[in-house]
Design a protein that fits this description.
Belongs to the KdpC family. It holds the Pfam family KdpC. The system is composed of three essential subunits: KdpA, KdpB and KdpC. It is built from five helices and five strands. It is mainly alpha-helical. A hairpin with a 2-residue loop joins strand 1 and strand 2 (52-56). The longest helix is centred in the first third of the chain and has 40 residues, at 3-42. The relative contact order is 0.12.
Length: 205
């Protein structure tokens, strides 16, 4: 058999072997291990309420009132006062638009947006603008973070308690329950998962 033909047959055999190992066996092994060890996370950490999928604990979402005119795409969003609100999102919590605004700290547009958000949140929650925490007026890098600071969650307690008729102490207990520690124990700050917190409030009997 000619040398060049043996070379090509050897290459073809290696291609087939590696395709089976890396294209079939390895993905199946990883998938099997992930399903056995942490199926919930491997499947997207889906959150369900009354058997219905309502989101993922890894992805934030908007909690807005229905549009008054569904055909008006320019109608501004109106946050629902019965829910704890997430931090701003440059992509309106659309997973396909994940990312930040790319505005720098010296940007006049960013400064205006922060000031406008602070005034709107202060009016919405009935607090002094100085009481609005920083994460309430700034978006995360991904625009999909489901967490807010404990301070921002506690700042919203009086509004949610009033709208739902729930004792503030009960809401504070839920905030504590759904507060997650720092990443790796030392990165960032404690955060409250708004998706899980609002789910618990919605299921309250």
């Amino acid at each position: 058999m000619p040398a060049f033909l043996r070379t090509h047959l050897t290459a073809l055999r290696m291609l087939l072997v590696l395709t089976v190992i890396l294209g079939l066996a390895y993905p199946l092994l990883v998938t099997g291990v992930s399903q056995l060890a942490f199926a919930d996370r491997a499947n997207g950490s889906i959150v369900k309420s009354d058997g219905k999928e309502i989101g993922s604990s890894l992805l934030g979402q908007n909690y807005d009132l229905p549009k008054q005119d569904p055909n008006n795409a320019d109608e501004p969003a109106r946050p629902d006062p019965k829910f704890f609100q997430p931090r701003p999102s440059a992509g309106s919590y659309d997973p396909k638009a994940s990312g930040a605004s790319n505005l720098g700290p010296n940007s006049d547009d960013l400064l205006k947006a922060v000031n406008d958000r602070r005034a709107a949140i202060a009016a919405f929650d009935g607090v002094d603008p100085s009481a609005v925490p920083p994460d309430a007026v700034t978006a995360s890098g991904s625009g999909l973070d489901p967490h807010i600071s404990v301070a921002y969650a506690e700042e919203q307690v009086p509004r949610v308690a009033k709208e739902r008729g729930i004792p503030a102490e009960e809401l504070n207990q839920l905030i504590e329950k759904y507060t997650e520690g720092r990443s790796l124990g030392f990165l960032g700050q404690d955060g409250v998962n708004v998706v899980l917190l609002n789910k618990a409030i919605g299921e309250r009997r």
